[in-house]
Amino acid sequence: MHPNVYIPQQFIDLMQQQLPAHLDLDELLEACRRPLKRSIRVNTLKISVADFIVQASEMGWVLTPIPWCSEGFWLDNESETISLGNTSQHLSGLFYIQEASSMVPVSALLKDLEITPDMRLLDMAAAPGSKTTQLAAALNGNGLVVANEYAASRVKILFGNLMRCGVGNMALTNFDARVFGGWLPETFDAILLDAPCSGEGSLRKDADAMKNWSLESVTDISNTQQDLIESAFHALKPGGTLVYSTCTLNTQENQGVVSHLLDTFDDAIESIPLDGLFEGVEHSLTEQGHIHVYPQVYDCEGFFIAKFRKVDSVTPPKVKKRLGKFPFSPLTRKECDTVTKAFKHSVDIEIPGSFKLWQRDNEIWLFPAPIESLLRQLRFQRIGIKLAETHKKGYRWQHQAITALCNNSESSAVELSVDDARQWYMGRDIRPESENKQGEVLVRYQGVTIGLGKWVGNRIKNGLPREMVRDTNLF
User: Fold this and answer.
1) CATH number of the domain at 407-468, please?
2) May I ask the CATH class of domain 329-403?
3) Three-state DSSP state, 365
4) pLDDT, average across residues 117-143
5) Distance between alpha carbon 267 and the CA centroid of its chain, in Å?
6) pTM of full prediction above 0.85
7) 149, 179, 232, 440: which has the fewest Cβ within 10 Å?
């Protein structure tokens, strides 16, 4: 138990009024004071669920499937003393440490969603990236995921998680998400708005989550949420799907915001009930067909999820755009052919046809094809994958391109021991027991490519990006 969890009396009174009749207030408060079970989601961009289960079994982990996400598992016997973030499987992006109930919004969005090569998805409040990477894994390299984060300090964390998980068909933006409705009206096939909220459902993860909670702050936040959900609806294509979610429990930020959306857009919107999403969903289903998870129901964080379809076009707000010069230019067909052949020859990796090659100064980038018509509509912080830097003797291939595009069967690779893998993740050169070769080499651990090095005599020069270097030892 967490005896020091702060729960304001005003919140207890509010829950007394709003809690569904079949739930007990004391059980809710008791659940809020219990530590969370640890949960993870397998990243299928890097490994299949079946292969991960084998690795987990070899480590002695006991996995219990999460009903609403086929890639999600609770870790039932894994010791709290083990740092999941320092396992090789986490460092190489095979899994994401994600709270179980936070997997529901993406599962709701993906249900009955047809994945196409030219589709565009928007995650309006994306950091730290759990739901963005879940979306990207489902797309499996198709289409485009635009991941927006309002807090500049969190964009770097978001990008780090996308890079670790091998997500290439993405673009990052750093805006107040209220801009999307006016700047990119009727652009996206599907939108996830996991809205900033008062965080009442996350007490089990953060005992101080409600230190600044008040009824007044709930009103302020719900006003912001109403603005954001209007923006999301304007940015959605007719026929497109919108999921709204929060990790809070009060009805003002949940059902209240939903009512505002439905009232505002009336005949242009329909609510999609989420009954049948997973076994046991009826225990958290509202009369309107939304999911309202209280912490005691599935023994996880509190969450709210609602799903909508845009059935008709609406007039977007008018905005004035000011965009700076776009510093990239597309490569010619001949230049593309030269780069593609050099990449294949050097590291035995093919560049998928879903990417286009662009250049800025001496940098070559892979942009997801569906972004091209948006390049002069919005300013992006980061797009796609940095493939290479050019120099007099050729190309310096980049870590993100290697780990995102490899299939772990390339010929030019060295398998590391656990000791060498530790040294690698600490940013040090390694001397593996392998016959010395020349040039660039893929570095693998337990069959997964974890980076790119270069032979210098009998050692491999470490090419791990500085931001990914870990001082702590690999578990």
Assistant:
1) 3.10.450.720
2) alpha beta
3) strand
4) 97
5) 32
6) yes
7) 179
CATH code of the domain made up of 103-310: 3.40.50.150
CATH 3.10.450.720 occupies which residues in the chain? 329-403, 407-468
Q: Taking a C-beta distance cutoff of 8 angstroms, is the pair 5, 33 a contact?
A: yes
Give 256-305 pLDDT, tens digit per residue: 999 999 999 999 999 999 999 999 999 999 999 999 999 999 999 999 99
Give CA–CA dist 158/165, Å, rounded: 11
How far, in Å, CA of 96 to CA of 350, rounded?
26
CA-to-CA distance for 117 and 141, rounded, in angstroms? 8
Per-residue pLDDT at 253: 98
Query: Which DSSP category does 417 fall into?
Result: P
Quote the pLDDT of residue 127.
Answer: 96
Question: Which of 384, 447, 472 minimizes the C-alpha distance to 55?
Answer: 447
Residues 6+ apart with CB under 8 A from 437: 455
* 247 catalytically annotated: yes
Nearest to 55 by CA among 10, 108, 92: 92
Measure Cα distances from 239 to 113, 121, 234, 312 in Å: 11, 13, 12, 7
Distance CA 318, CA 326 (A): 23
Cite the residue boundaries of each domain of the chain with CATH code 3.40.50.150. Answer: 103-310
Residue pLDDT, tens place only, 228-263? 999 999 999 999 999 999 999 999 999 999 999 999
Q: What is the mean pLDDT of the chain?
A: 94
Contact assessment for residue 242 and residue 191, using Cβ atoms and an 8 Å cutoff: yes
